[in-house]
Amino acid sequence: MGEDICLKNMVIKMNEKIKEISWKEFKVERVFKINNSKAYHKNRLDCGNTDSYKLPYVTRTVQNNGLDDFVKDTEKYDKNPSNVIVFGAENADFFYQPFRHITGNKMYVIENENINRYTGLFLVSVFRSSIKNTGYGYGKGLTGSRFLKRSIVLPVDEEGNPNWKFMENFMKEIEQAIDPKIKFKVHKINDNRELEDVEWIEYFVGDLFEVKRGRRLIKKHQVEGLKPYVSSTGLNNGVDNFISNKDNVRVYNDCLTIANSGSVGEVFYHPYEFVASDHVTHIKKKGLNKYQYLFLATIFKKLGEKYSFNREISDKRLKREKIMLPIDEKGEPDWGFMEQYMKRIENEAMGSIVISENIEKLK
Questions:
Q1: What does the CA dihedral 291, 297, 300, 306 come to, rounded to 10 degrees?
Q2: Mind giving me the DSSP string for 62-89?
């Protein structure tokens, strides 16, 4: 109960701060400098995991903050500076890099003297949001010159300049609200296959999952409480409010939601009990766990590219949508592979936290 109250208070506080500050649109080229990073091919690098191998090698992988490996540090490398943001032309994703590093092919480095650990993480969210649903990715590369011409929206100070102090303080408050004492147990991995190593087939969504949207509950009828109210916002895991309503609501738990209007196509996993608005549809299959749902969240999110604010995702449409899933030897969805794959990603993500805690060794 105490944790629920803390979560509620943090979300409310952060939302209020976002609403109170002024925002302004900027051309990326007005605020940032973007360089084409020198490419190094991994098969020509001396990689390892001992103390002498401490130069990060960052590539277009979307895992582990872009960190692919560590290289033996020598003067021969053209190193990128620390406190920058990098992105790959084909994965079109952004990562803050607090240390000097080298990169693989088709990588770009975003620089500004005000980028630090906190403003960098804030900007990563802004940059990702700015290219959402633009189609950039494999087949349509996001180059440095293309991104420079795009527009982003940033918080501004009284003079209309980017409010770096606000960005920094905002992220510091979020960091302080997260319990740093949480212990993580490394998952045992017995399946190291990659996505391309398994067979995939198509399924109708309705053949595998229960699909049902929430129920309309307008703002003035919402009673303050502790139960998350999930709507079509793309922020805060879809949580729009905390309520105590019990009548004429639809309550779900341990499932996915997909926004059927508003932030159409946004998908979130909810391991807790929540009230669903009519702007989201819950997707559930009995027997699935956290890791299988997180794997599926990525699959379902791709469906959102077909829809827009003017073309909503109805339950009927969603049930008739087809998704590709990995299959086992019996031709059934390989839930075991999905779980193992996501556990491997979690192991890698937690490993990157350990790396960041020892960041001074990498500079």
A1: -160
A2: SSGGGEEEEEE--TTS-PBPSSEEEEET
What distance in Å separates the CA atoms of residue 121 and residue 94, rounded to the nearest whole number?
10
In 3D space, the residue among 123, 205, 111, 216 whose CA is nearest the CA of residue 168 turns out to be 123
In angstroms, the CA 226 to CA 215 distance is: 18
CA distance 179 to 231: 26
Per the document, the length of the chain is 363
What amino acid occupies position 158?
A: E
Amino acid 322 reads K
**What contacts 313, CB < 8 A, 6 or more positions away?**
258, 259, 260, 261, 264, 265, 281, 303, 304, 307
Instruction: Give the neighbor-by-neighbor strand order of the sheet with 67-72.
Output: 67-72, 53-58, 102-103
- Give the distance between the most distant pair of CA atoms in the chain: 68
Residue 71 near residue 46, CB atoms below 8 Å: yes
d(CA 103, CA 80): 8
Element (H, E) at 250: strand 250-259
Are residues 154 and 126 in contact, defined by beta-carbon separation less than 8 angstroms?
Answer: yes
Q: Give residue-wise pLDDT tens across range 302-334.
A: 887 776 556 678 889 999 999 999 999 999 999
For the whole model, what pTM was predicted?
0.53
With helix as H, strand as E and coil as C, how does 257-272 read? EEECCCCCCCEEEEEE
First-to-last alpha carbon distance for the chain, in angstroms, is: 42
Choose among 119, 120, 242, 170: nearest CA to 14: 170
Residue (of 64, 48, 46, 67) closest to 56 by Cα position: 67
Sequence-distant (6+) residues with CB within 8 A of 81 are 100, 109, 111
Segment 56-73 mean pLDDT: 84
At residue 209 the predicted structure's pLDDT band, cuts being 50, 70 and 90, is: very high
Give yes or no for residue 225 having a pLDDT over 50: yes
